[in-house]
Amino acid sequence: MTLAWRQTARDGQARAGVLETAHGEAPTPAFMAVGTAGTVKAMTAQAVRSTGTAIILGNTYHLMLRPTAERIARLGGLHRFADWPGPILTDSGGFQIMSLAKLRQVDADGVTFRSHLDGSAHRLTPERSTAIQHLLDATITMALDECTPFPATAAEARASMELTHRWAERSRAAFVARPGYGQFGIVQGSVFAELRLASAAAIAGIGFEGIAIGGLAVGEGQAAMFEVLDRVAPALPAPKPRYLMGVGTPDDLLGAVARGIDMFDCVIPTRAGRTARAYTRTGVMNLRNARFADDAVPLDAACACPACARHSRAYLHHLFRAGEMLGPMLLTWHNLAYYQDLMDGMREAIGAGRFADYAEACREGWRPEV
């Protein structure tokens, strides 16, 4: 059995299903918590599980630097190392090609990084990236790509896309197939519809177990992102899971699911939690604001996470004003719980044939940030 996705319901373009892997099942639409260096920041693995999160991410670039993939392999793989028996998806290092542009040199064969930790040189090729992810025992391996920055000219986007396609072929050839494991290729092409459709066809033709859409949420704006998804998602193989990388806000998730996307990851909920911003059913709250100093009600009365079930807004405000580490821990927990509740609601609504109504109700409940 290879890694597979099974559709359980559909409402318009929105899809509900189950991702079946060697490390268990994950319902989709799914939001995957980002654990770049083998940990979801400010959370224990058990706390992450309690939010309903089924999949977490690791990152090839960061883990190859510290503690190294070889060390993790000797210690039993990333699942054991990070206390996460469920599915793990590992980013290939392609995003760092964009985000660490000042510390890398790209050529046709791969990329050479200067470590952001100590300046040492490290070589990453499609084969090496795939081998690192194998050492980590990633449930889902990502093909090495070049994440195209925005803005880019059509010529720049085409060159980047064609490099990604060549690397995708090499990544696939290096992948070791095992029961319940899989590899995803990545569609690039910036905001150019012709390039995106060409990339979708090329990546689909390689035979990956799933297909990701990369190079979005990098500055192009939500409207442009949705225009790309409107064109690309229908062109992807229907039986395979679709993963939109690095996205996003709750509104982004609703819009992307409506366009046929199944999987997401983003640092937004965890980063926001560390900076006192809470996502709730009534909108985003900044708990540093003085208006919460005497607010005795729960952060979100409908949420069962510890931040909401056991504490007041006033207490959370106090934690951040006092610089106590419990504040980021509790808000990160809450934000992940909110995102998972949002995904639960989407899956239920798709199954009931009322996804559009659910999305409208969510948006109507959100007020401007306070």
Structure description:
The protein has helices spanning 45-50, 60-65, 69-74, 78-81, 94-99, 126-136, 154-174, 193-206, 222-232, 250-258, 268-274, 306-310, 313-321, 326-352, 355-365, and strands at 4-11, 14-21, 24-28, 30-34, 56-59, 88-91, 104-106, 111-114, 121-124, 140-142, 182-187, 210-213, 242-244, 263-265, 277-280, 283-286. The protein has 2 domains: 4-266, TIM Barrel (Alpha-Beta Barrel), CATH 3.20.20; 282-365, no CATH class. The protein is of the alpha/beta class. Strands 4-5-6-10-11-12-13-14 form an 8-stranded parallel beta barrel, surrounded by 4 helices. Strands 1-2-3 form a 3-stranded antiparallel beta sheet. A 3-stranded antiparallel beta sheet has the order 7-8-9. It is globular and about 60 Å long. Helix 6 (126-136) packs across helix 7, helix 11 packs antiparallel against helix 14 and helix 14 (326-352) runs antiparallel to helix 15 (355-365). Helix 1 links the parallel strand 4 (30-34) and strand 5 (56-59). The protein has 15 helices and 16 strands.
